[in-house]
Amino acid sequence: MGRITNLRDLVGLIKDKASQSKAAIISKPKNFSLQLALLRATTHDPFTPPNPKHITTMLSYGHSSRAIASPAIEALMDRLQSTHDSSVAIKCLTIVHHIIKHGSFILQDQLSVYPSTGGRNYLKLSSFRDTTTPITWELSSWVRWYARYLEHLLSTSRVLGFFLCSTSNTAEKDKEEEKVSALTNPHLLKEIDSLANLMEETCKRPDSLHLHGNGLVDQVINLVSDDYLSSINEIAIRIDEFNQRLSCLSFGDSVELVCVLKRLENCKERLLALFGRKKALVEIVWCLISEMKEKVGNTEDGRLSLAIGGKESESESARFGERVLSFGASVKFSSGRF
């Protein structure tokens, strides 16, 4: 049950018990097990991450039909968007992340099309604040960032055509290099730009001033760290493809590519600081990025530097439309179903 260290923790424990009892009374029989599993996975304990057993139970609702998966996603989102408790919110976001990484196709499908309004504030947590204690205030910054990060992860997945970092898309990943080689230059640029957006958002991860050893935060860091390695791999595949096309890149494509590569380079120090233990595994990719930027720059005359200078002044808001889910957007799969 975690550590009960103060009155707030005790109140949280009482709330959890009360919520489970309420679910038993008012839930329809077919929804009771879902509500109970969700409540058990998203307790008010501010120190302990969701029990893996309860996360597995939530993921199991995607193994039968959309009629079952859809209420599971709706219940999770209702819980996320109605809570004012930072620990409950971050646990809900953790379950969303687990669905992206380990969920079935059906469950991921339902997540990708929720809500129908889509849009910039997909998870509706940009103004989340829990001012109860200094710890919950600091956790609130993690809730806001984690929601933005997952929005970018979903957006990047939509651009790539598969759920990035997902274990359920092995077949897609096996064909990744073949698929990338068939892309047009503009589409390939769009993909690497989206991956750069995700890297930039990863860099904005809050610092844990008073949250060292907090199980909730540690789990988020581990999940994002795994995503980072997957993203680096996807970037490497696309850098290699651009290297093969270097002689046939247009001037405009060269400008776009160098801008993206510079943005990635700007992320390097922060990402290496955040994920230092992975440095040996990714240093070669950062070298490839630097070398590719120099190669592209050397293929054009002085116009490239001038053009890039103007390109870099482009506002952040002008690029935001490509980063987030558009109205009613879902992840596009190669099957063409969506």
Automatic annotation (TrEMBL):
GO CC aspect terms: clathrin-coated pit; clathrin-coated vesicle; Golgi apparatus
InterPro entries cross-referenced by the UniProt entry: ANTH_dom (IPR011417), ANTH_N_plant (IPR048050), AP180-like (IPR045192), ENTH (IPR013809), ENTH_VHS (IPR008942)
Residues passing through the membrane, by range: none
Pfam families for this protein: ANTH
Major localization listed first in the record, in broad terms: cytoplasm
Cell compartments where the protein resides: Cytoplasmic vesicle, Clathrin-coated vesicle; Golgi apparatus; Membrane, Clathrin-coated pit
Top-level lineage group: Eukaryota
MF terms in GO: 1-phosphatidylinositol binding; clathrin heavy chain binding; phosphatidylinositol-4,5-bisphosphate binding; SNARE binding
SMART domains for this protein: ENTH
PANTHER family noted in UniProt: CLATHRIN ASSEMBLY PROTEIN, OS09G0468150 PROTEIN
Protein name: ENTH domain-containing protein
Organism in which the protein naturally occurs: Jatropha curcas
